[in-house]
Amino acid sequence: MQIEDTMLVDFLTGALTGTAIVEGARDLASLKGIFGDEEALAALDPSRLVYRVQAFQPVDEGTEGGLFWGSTVLEPGLVGDEYFMTQGHFHAKRNRGEYYSTVAGFGALILMDEARNVRVEWMRPGSTHYIPGYTAHRVANIGDQQLSFLACWPSDAGHDYRTIALHGFSARLLCIEGQPKLVPQP
Ligand code: M6P
Ligand code: ZN
After folding, report:
1. Chain centroid to CA 181: how far?
2. Distance 43 CA to ligand 2 centre (A)
3. Tell me: the pLDDT tens digits for 12-55?
4. Ligand 2 (ion): which residues have CB within 5 A?
5. What is the pTM of this model?
6. Rounded CA gap, 114 and 111, in Å?
7. Which atom of ligand 1 is nearest to the CA of 71?
8. Structural domains present in the chain
């Protein structure tokens, strides 16, 4: 029997290796407008890495019926009182869902429905989260080590970043007296 390796997951770190992998990195400069405290952001090195993303895309983006597999490694850190976090998005095709599964570290999956109701699911190694359709999703690192998680989503889901850029989430996860607290935004 011949075993064809197309992609390998390192289940200790979450890193992907193999073919058909698309990679990206987000520094603080590229996340301008995402964090609440602009003064605190301006005091930090704009080239500081916040997270890296890898996506295994065995079919073209937009293909109906296919699946993508991703890995995200989010650094620990704060912008003022706000934890380092991913940009967050709705799916362009709103009814598409997704799975997130934590590999290492501690975090918060912040979920917001279209009525702007926000809730949090806590992430720890092994925690696996079903993100339903019509739900924006963003991850914050609440620990002091890297937070690594795997994701699986439909290849025709797409990313709608614009809605988040325009309106944000209706609550922010802040570090208050050392504890994560979801704070509603006016
Ligand atoms: C996960 C998946 C990806 C997403 C990434 C980073 O790996 O949901 O689709 O790109 O997290 O999140 P964002 O795109 O919101 O920056
Ligand atoms: Zn998604």
Report:
1. 18
2. 30
3. 999 999 988 999 999 999 999 999 999 999 999 999 999 999 99
4. 98
5. 0.96
6. 10
7. 7
8. 3-184 (2.60.120.10)
